[in-house]
Write a structure and sequence with these properties.
Blueprint: H1 2-15, H2 27-31, H3 34-42, H4 57-67, H5 69-81, H6 84-89, E1 95-101, E2 115-124, H7 129-195, H8 201-235, E3 251-253, H9 259-269, H10 271-292, E4 298-306, E5 313-320, H11 326-398, H12 404-439, E6 450-452
Antiparallel strand pairs: 1-2, 2-4, 3-6, 4-5
Helix pairs in contact: 1-3, 1-8, 3-8, 4-7, 5-7, 7-8, 7-10, 7-12, 9-11, 10-11, 11-12
């Protein structure tokens, strides 16, 4: 861009010299037209060609759900957590003991002892304790499973938003290239009028500056598109520089269920709410387990006494714990109080999550409707009117009835209107992605009315 501006300034210095004082431009001044400089600078600036097959949003979502590293890690953690409930259902490992009794102090040989005892022991938790512990762990595993669904919705939302950003950048590049071609045509008209002495050099320089401005905008848009491609590739577990083929054309959504319907659906399907409800159930299971801890545990020990100088014998020991002992009960009471308070906290978190989901649904719903209305207004009114105004001013400029500055303003208005339309479509896609994330399920096309955008290009 600096080279273009430099070329324009040099030309301005040349034209603003002695030639400016002449009413009719000379052949030398005509030959020094800035259009030749601009064409040399922009000659290598080609429309981008996207390598690879067409890449739809559905394909991107399928690939992300299968390959996203974060989801793969959560699924692996869930598979590991699934083994925990079974661990709580089994008894603890038994104990094996061997004792030597009456080992005389005057010998180191254990054979000279009078008694050998071999024992096997087993702890037996109180009735229902193992099931209660397993239930607590099962709720934790269910929470881990729900976290996968929550993260999956997050990945889907990010993929949709990034896809929409990439689409916007690419369409903005296309629109700017179209306007670049249009400006070249206007510059040709300006050059012809200048060679015939109908306008001053100022109009020619304005065309040069406008072309340079579009060149700068294209560079910025290409950077944005490259960054969006890298982000999308990362979400799909691809190399950041991997090529992405042509994107699918979006549609204008014109029908949605009422917000109240979507809010009810969210309360039923939202993974985060399911996690909150499971949190309440987990706390309730923990309270049930705390109540079970007031029940005693048992232990059994059986043994065999080998007495070389006497008759062998069996030995049996049966024991029971006393959880309600005055010096031990306080620990259980505190644990029960903790579990009770945790239930209240979990219920409060669930209510807060429900309110947050309702707000998120309403917020996204409003943004979807506004973006939808903006896209429809721009497509049906603003863009056609801007194009018509430019056509009228272009014809008027050829007959010297409109200044070139007015023509440029109309061209900018059309460019801005086209970019705003695609920006509204991108906002619509992103708002719809947020709405689906808030609801917790994809909003199928049976809920939507669609309008193709081909006529806007």
């Amino acid at each position: 861009m600096n080279r273009l501006l430099f070329g324009g300034f040099v030309l301005f210095a040349i034209v603003a010299g002695p030639v400016a004082a002449v009413a009719q431009p000379s052949a030398a001044a005509s030959a020094a037209s800035p259009l030749s400089v601009v064409r040399d600078q922009l000659g290598s600036f080609r429309r981008p060609v996207y390598q690879g097959p067409p890449f739809s949003l559905e394909s991107a979502l399928d690939e992300a759900l299968k390959r996203n590293p974060t989801l793969l890690a959560l699924r692996a953690q869930f598979e590991a957590a699934r083994q925990r409930p079974a661990q709580e259902r089994f008894l603890a490992a038994p104990t094996f003991e061997a004792q030597i009794w009456q080992w005389p102090i005057n010998t180191l040989n254990p054979v000279n002892s009078n008694m050998y005892m071999f024992m096997v022991g087993q702890d037996l938790p109180g009735r229902g304790k193992r099931a209660a512990r397993a239930l607590v762990v099962e709720k934790e595993v269910a929470i881990a499973e729900a976290d996968i669904a929550v993260q999956a919705r997050e990945v889907i939302d990010r993929v949709k938003r990034t896809y929409a950003e990439l689409f916007l950048s690419r369409m903005a590049i296309t629109v700017n290239h179209d306007n670049l071609d249009l400006l070249r045509q206007l510059a040709d008209i300006t050059s012809v009028k200048y060679t015939t002495g109908r306008i001053s050099q100022q109009d020619v320089l304005k065309a040069v500056v406008e072309l340079s401005r579009l060149h700068d905008a294209l560079l910025v848009l290409e950077q944005q598109a490259a960054l969006a491609e890298a982000q999308l590739n990362t979400l799909l577990d691809r190399a950041p520089e991997a090529p992405i083929g042509p994107l699918a054309e979006p549609v204008e959504r014109v029908l949605l269920p009422p917000s109240s319907v979507l809010q009810r659906l969210a309360l039923e399907q939202q993974p985060e709410l399911r996690t909150a409800r499971l949190g309440v159930e987990r706390s309730e299971a923990a309270l049930a387990l705390a109540n079970r801890e007031y029940k005693p545990d048992f232990f059994v020990v059986g043994g065999y006494m080998l007495m070389p100088r006497d008759t062998d014998a069996w030995t049996v020991t049966v024991g029971i714990t006393w959880p309600n002992a005055p010096w031990a009960r306080g620990r259980l009471d505190a644990r029960k109080a903790e579990a009770t308070a945790d239930i209240a906290a979990a219920q409060a978190r669930r209510r807060a999550a429900e309110n947050a989901v309702r707000l998120a649904v309403q917020d996204a719903y409003v943004r979807v409707k506004v973006a939808e209305q903006r896209a429809a207004l721009l497509r049906t009114t603003v863009v056609p009117q801007s194009r018509q105004t430019l056509d009228v001013s272009r014809a008027a400029y050829q007959t010297d009835r409109v200044e070139f500055l007015a023509l440029l303003d109309n061209q900018r208005v059309l460019l801005d209107a086209q970019l705003e339309y695609y920006r509204a479509l991108s906002d619509l896609e992103q708002a719809l992605a947020d709405l689906e994330r808030a609801v917790g399920v994809d909003i199928g096309r049976d809920m939507l009315g669609v309008i193709n955008i081909r006529e806007v290009k």
